[in-house]
Specification:
The structure holds two protein chains of two kinds. By secondary structure, chain A is mainly beta. Chain A is built from one helix and five strands. In chain B, helix 7 links the parallel strand 4 (about 135) and strand 5 (about 160-165). Chain B is elongated, with a radius of gyration of 24 Å. The chains are: A mainly beta, B alpha/beta. The interface of A and B includes residues 31, 43, 62, 65 and 66 of A.
Chain lengths: ~70, ~375
């Protein structure tokens, strides 16, 4: 299955969840937000949100500067 | 989603005010009604720094009647690359006072209220209570979570913006009508994981880009026009020159916010492991110099990034960035038969690297408290600070 992860096409195993995608990209699970098709998935839903074919998944990092 | 105006209109505008704000008054959506709402508005800006500078200046020019400024810091030369509310002659002056002087020059009709204390859990609710709207442009996660939770508890809206290098994010958090910051980022990143602007840098003009969006959203909320960024995160990339929005929903399973907490502990300024490692294994910059002068044989490692090393470095220091210690790559580069001395800019990153080095068996390793900044202050003031 193909999906777009942070703008790059990637091959994912079936039933890959948002939580799996986050784990593959960063060792920190806090301070990170995930948007699937431009909608943020609440963290409490990561583990049960399955990525569908052609989904656009964006992992955003909190920044603190001001 | 359009929202009702946040502020009731003032009774009237004076003749001088009508002249001053004429370019607003002839916009049908703003008009006399909108300008009177701005006049009646009380807006608190947290941090008179990179984002606080443009937001304060434009909100003052726009005719926001009362501007509160909370900042305990003083103006430093390294602020002037982006904090345009301060100038050369303000160096050393409290930022809140310097900002007030600029605002008075821009628009004498604005009442400025200064809060020169550090915002914390003991004073946030009391300070926020006097304002209609809060703008958060602080530079650390602890204050950001504090601002969020206080705004939620008081049911006040706040405009949030954050910046790093070439990237900016903006949103409006208003628990009554949409999500709050914790629905987006329930917890901060692990301490040390995401660098601050002081560690990672920021393109100065990014402050204007993001700050002007924040001021824009503040004006919309006050006057009740347009579609504010409630429930949306605006993401800006200055290199690609793209703006994107993503929707944010309230997380129905989120822990409710019921009180203010200890935000320093929540965000953990320096990882506990690093604090532990640094205890009893910290030397001063002067002690490092004495070791050099005695001709002691040690291996000095600079754990900053390459571009920081190029700005200024301690003679004899070998550059191995902190990241290599966290991945373990660094250890092969360290001699086994010499004492390892680590330093960074101000002591935070070297403490983290020290924890990793000790874990890898270099038990007599130490780090330099206060980093190269302390070296410059106490050993070689001829070097440039950054």
């Amino acid at each position: 299955m193909n999906a777009i992860i942070n703008g790059e096409p990637r091959q994912l195993a079936p039933d890959t969840t948002v939580a799996d995608v986050v784990r593959s990209l960063t060792r920190a699970e806090s301070g990170v937000a995930v948007a699937v098709n431009d909608e943020v998935v609440p963290k409490t839903d990561w583990a049960r949100t399955v990525v569908s074919p052609d989904d656009r998944v964006d992992v955003l990092t909190a920044v603190q500067g001001g | 989603m359009s929202l009702p105006p946040l502020v009731e209109p003032a009774d009237e505008l004076t003749i001088d005010e009508v002249q001053r704000y004429s370019r607003h008054l002839i916009i049908p959506d703003v008009g006399m009604d909108g300008q009177k709402r701005l006049k009646n508005a009380k807006v608190l800006v947290v941090g008179a720094g990179g984002l606080g500078s443009p937001t304060l200046m434009y909100l003052a020019a726009a005719g926001v009647g009362t501007l509160g400024i909370i900042d305990f810091d003083v103006v430093d030369e390294s602020n002037l690359q982006r904090q345009v509310i301060h100038g050369q002659s303000d160096i050393g002056k409290p930022k809140a006072e310097s900002a007030r002087e600029t605002i008075e020059e821009i628009n004498p009709f604005v009442k400025v209220v200064l809060h020169k204390e550090r915002l914390d859990s003991s004073n946030a609710l009391e300070i926020f209570a006097d304002y209609d709207l809060i703008l958060d442009g602080t530079d650390n996660f602890a204050t950001r979570y504090l601002v969020n939770d206080a705004a939620v508890l008081l049911n006040k809206p706040y405009v949030w913006g954050s910046i790093f290098r070439f990237d900016g994010q903006v949103s409006v958090f208003w628990n009554e009508y949409g999500p709050n910051y914790r629905d987006l980022y329930p917890e901060p990143p692990p301490p040390g994981m995401v660098p601050s602007c002081a560690e990672g840098g920021v393109l100065g003009v990014l402050c204007a880009t993001i700050g002007s969006v924040m001021a824009n959203e503040a004006i919309k909320l006050i006057t009740g026009i347009g579609d504010p960024l409630v429930g949306r995160l605006l993401i800006y990339d200055a290199l690609e020159m793209t703006w994107r929005t993503v929707k944010i929903r309230k997380d129905p399973n989120a822990e409710p916010i019921t009180e203010l907490i200890d935000y320093e502990a929540f965000c953990g300024t320096i990882p506990e492991e690093a604090q532990e490692a640094a205890r009893g294994s910290t030397i001063t910059a002067k002690e490092l110099k004495e070791k050099m002068d005695r001709g002691e044989d040690f291996f000095l490692v600079d754990v900053r990034e390459k571009n920081e090393y190029e700005i200024v470095n301690i003679p004899g220091a070998v550059l191995i960035p902190k990241g290599e210690f966290l991945t373990g790559e660094a250890f092969a580069k360290l001699p086994q038969d010499k004492q390892i001395i680590l330093h960074c800019k101000s002591g935070g990153r070297s403490a983290e690297a020290l924890a990793a080095v000790k874990k890898a068996g270099f038990s007599d390793a130490v780090h330099v408290g206060g980093g190269i900044l302390s070296w410059i202050e106490t050993v070689d003031p001829s070097l440039p600070k950054y």
